[in-house]
Amino acid sequence: MRFDIITVLPSLLDSPFAHSILLRAQKKGLAEIHVHNLREYSTHKQKSVDDYQYGGGSGMVMSIEPFANCIEKLKSEREYDEVIFLTPDGETLKQTIANELSSKGNIILLCGHYKGIDQRIRDIYVTREISIGDYVLSGGELPAAVLVDSVVRLLPGVLNDETSALSDSFQGELLDAPVYTRPADWNGHKVPDVLLSGNQAVIENWRHDQALERTQKRRPDLLR
Ligand code: ADE
User: 116: Cβ below 6 Å to ligand 1?
Assistant: First the structure.
């Protein structure tokens, strides 16, 4: 699977993909993540990528030309399944969306800044608009990193233990049960006895009960 991320702040995306699971996915050839500097696609002398808003109003708007140039170049090289714009007014990212995107081949991600991007970019090129939550960030880079992470970890072969993505919170309708590791007793704070029992059926029952209780308390909206 391949992601092409278009941004005015490419260096902001240096680190998120250079560690742990995302790095391993790229090293194994399961995911390619390419970051493109939008400024390089501006034909302005000053390499500007934004301009004043028609009709007045505060805040600069990102121009259509650099985005169009970059998207057209990418599209001339390969086919894309989606062009996704990260924006607080998009559909909220959910596990179901991550699952769906993980079956795609090539995806372009557009990161906005300032007041937003020229509506025509959205009308002409964007196939899907996604928000990572009901809050406003300074730009689409962190949301793009969140989206890529949520998708790449689902690709077959990325996680060592194939079952671990399946038991994640949100993958079923329940949140995860609490987990513990050694020591079994930390200054009197003990690991629940059941987990030391060695009885796998009883442990699975306990985990399910805990997951249900946690979901009822924290996210009753997830229960049908
Ligand atoms: N850009 C700014 N805020 C955002 C958000 N919450 N989700 C996606 N993109 C954004």
Answer: no
Q: What is the mean pLDDT of the chain?
A: 96
Q: Is residue 194 part of a domain?
A: yes
Nearest CA to ligand 1 atom 9: 87
Structural domain contains residue 133: yes
pTM score: 0.95
Instruction: State pLDDT tens for residues 154-207.
Output: 999 999 875 577 778 887 889 999 999 999 999 999 999 999 999 999 999 999
- Residue 131 is part of a domain; what is its CATH number? 3.40.1280.10
Question: Which residues are bridge partners to 130 per DSSP?
Answer: 91
List, in order, residues 6 or more apart from 216 with CB less than 8 Å away.
223
Is 22 in the same domain as 75?
yes
Pocket test for ligand 1, best of 5, 8, 131, 147 (most atoms within 8 A of CB): 131
